[in-house]
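REVIEWER CHECKLIST
Item 1: Sequence provided? yes
Item 2: Single chain? yes
Item 3: Sequence as submitted:
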Amino acid sequence: MNKKKYFFLFLLFLFQLGFIQCYLPFKEWFTNSPIYSDDFSIHYGCVLEEKEMLNHFGSLWSYNPFFRAGSITQSIITVDSKGWGVFVTLFPFLPTAISFKLYYILIILTVPFVCYLAARYFEFDVNESLLCSFLGVCFLHVSICIDFIYWGTGTYITSCYLSVLATSLFYNFLKSDKIKYLLLTILVSSLSLWAHFLSGFHLVFAFSVCLLAFIRKLKLKTIFLVICLVIVMFVIASPMVLPLIKFLDTKVPYYPWRPYFTDDPLVAVKVYFFQLIPFNKYKNIPFQKSAMVDIGLLLLSLLGFYYWWEKGEKQKLITLSGTFVILFSFAYYSSFFKAFIDLTPLRYVIAMNVFLLIPATAGLVKLYDSFLRQKPFSTKMASYIISFYFLFLLLSQPLYHLYIKKDFRLSTEMPNQIRELLQFITKNTTNEGRILVENSGWESNHQYYGTHLTFLFHPFTGRDFIGAEYSSDPFNDAFVSFYGGELFHRPLSEYTLNDLDSYFRLYNIKWIVCWSEKAVKLFEKFPDYITLVKKVDKFYIFEVKRKPSFFLKGEGEISVDTNKISLKNVQPGNGEIIISYHWMKYLKTLPEVKLEKIYLLKDPVGFIRIINPSRDVVIYNGY
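Item 4: Structure as written out by the authors:
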């Protein structure tokens, strides 16, 4: 039986390996070039920052003076890159671009093994566990998961599968009181959290229901160990959790990113009765996903729940049916509560379906027991042939787009137009002033060739940028965004010359990179103040006719680095200086001087003011 198990697991591994090859051919695994497609650009930028921060500061967050006029990085919007950054840092002997790709490859390749182990720990036999692994791999290819992997958001998919495995281990711990299962629960839960922090919701939901399932047999010792589990998990997740807590006061409700929440109370009805999947409304999806996958998983799971009820496996039934109910409710209905919108509720449909793989496997076993187990070999073979035919119909479309059309091929080459743009920026700009960049995401059809390459403009040029980072970040310093026809959260059509001059002086903007007709039309209105210096493909590069300075009040020399702003030869104005960098509550000075926050224009963050500064001052992040 062990040989059979390893053989079929190896086949599933090969299937998964072929799947990965469609995204990233093996010849590109070890080239010193990252993946640029879609969100991969953001993650690579985050990983570069995380590696630097871990190596130099031992922290996963910092004060970054190169973005947003000084920004708190690596706290909320990058919850899906933490494990990535740690992984890359652990392999310093590899080029960052290579370890960056290897992490993504490894987390996808583990799926068949994670499914198999989850089924085994939910007390399935080897054959049933292999069936569950097969279902888990197939679900990955036919559902929206395939697009998540292509978009660069596959870490969430991995966290869903790991959450099921963690739940199966927790189930075994409560059932047996064996410490080894508690330790394994901590290990797998940690991997899930570090893959994607939002998996914490899966774990809380599933573990809570599992505790209720065993409530009558819980001993004081078990309750104590569960409390220890919670404490240990918090400590393990604290490098991610503490920055969230520290800067929760900077969170704002402005979050216009709509794809992952719904305002339709009938969305679940439309999925299960009219086969209308909300994910199919997304732009640039190579093929429409079939709701029969969701419907099939649900029907088979209901049969599996009944099977467990018949067998008296009530605790397993309560654990997985209860988790399904909570995830179903959260995914389809929590969007109607403002507190949950930022958690992108629709993504939890994926977690719900991944959890359903376990009872769906039990449902298939029940079908086999009821209709085929006692049938002759010829009847079984006919049933297998029919089943594989329908399976082929389900898989044929995604496999066609993967292997034939190659719609999911990831890009490891920077577009030549962007390369030319960055070369011009490097040669023709300085760090005396900032560069205002018009961003583009899903709302404007990814004008940077299907990527978020603006997130990499600073590491590739060494220049200071505003507007180049992820614009939908729910932080108050996202006020400096420039996308969707708006600049600083205000329509471009409303700006006058005086408005532009005021903001350009405030943020020390010396150059502008834009692509939209609205932006070009605005800046061309003021040729005596804003001059077009270059056009690279669709991108217009303007220079602002003003003397750049990061001193809004007073004078001096300034240089910046991660977590540090160095001021030299300071000459205060009326006993103080104000600099064009955002204030942050953990900033300190050396030597110690009075540092205050001052609000200017409509910027909600505030800028750094120093009263009676010394001639030379270093402002640093005191954590």
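Item 5: Key structural point noted by reviewer: The longest strand covers residues 564-571.
Item 6: Recommendation: ____
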